[in-house]
Design a protein that fits this description.
Elements lengths: L6 E5 L10 H10 L4 E4 L6 H17 L3 E5 L2 H7 L3 E4 L7 H7 L3 E7 L2 H10 L3 E4 L17 H9 L4 E3 L8 H5 L5 E4 L1 H4 L4 H12 L1
Parallel strand pairs: 1-2, 1-8, 2-3, 3-4, 4-5, 5-6, 6-7, 7-8
């Protein structure tokens, strides 16, 4: 499973991937070469999040991709999912979560290298830095100095993911820093042809 921590990391969004089309959209992204799918769901009920987690996990299995659930530690443990992504609210509990959850754990470190080093020590499998650019899905998120990606690659042993406002016009800049994973939201889901857009990004990361 750990060898899957590379490539295009597509993250769902309640507005851009609504309930009635999320499965079709995610499958198109997987067909285009997305290697990791994260369900980031801030609106649905626990029951619905569980239902979508099970279906998306099955879909990822079909394409030999990794499925990650955002924030919902309890559901990730209950369903024994591939992966779990946590933010600053669960950061201090990472050691305890690691004891209960046997899958992949990713941690948002924003622009903080010390947090990333600590996360690695506590058992994180990858860390994410961002926002790299102004992001349409999180317009208030502060942007990072991109040199942090380079520094992280030098001091960490675990894979590095980048996120935030990454699109076709700035992906070349990001690739000069050689991240292991590139998370994309708007620029994949807003595409007229999701499969082709995912393919475009995937080819850059090969």
């Amino acid at each position: 499973m750990y060898n899957k921590l590379k490539g295009i990391y597509a993250i769902t969004d309640n507005i851009l991937t609504p309930n009635d089309t999320i499965l079709t959209q995610v499958e198109q992204a997987l067909e285009g070469g997305a290697k990791i799918i994260q369900l980031r769901d801030k609106q649905n009920s626990d029951e619905q999040i569980e239902k979508f987690s099970i279906m998306l996990q099955e879909l990822c299995n079909k394409y030999n991709a990794l499925f990650v659930l955002n924030d919902r530690v309890d559901i990730a443990i209950k369903l024994n999912l591939d992966g779990l992504h946590i933010g600053k609210d669960d950061y201090e509990d990472l050691g305890k979560i690691r004891e209960k959850f046997k899958g992949i754990i990713g941690v948002s470190c924003y622009g903080n290298l010390d947090s990333a080093a600590k996360a690695q020590k506590l058992g994180a499998d990858y860390v994410a830095f961002g926002a790299c650019f102004s992001s349409p899905t999180k317009p208030n998120a502060p942007t990072i100095n991109l040199n942090i990606i380079k520094q992280a690659k030098e001091i960490l042993d675990i894979p590095v993911c980048v996120i935030g406002g990454i699109n076709r016009s700035n992906i070349d800049t990001i690739m000069t820093y050689k991240p292991d994973m590139v998370a994309i939201i708007s620029d994949i889901w807003n595409a007229d042809d999701i499969k082709e857009r995912a393919k475009f990004f995937s080819n850059l990361l090969k």
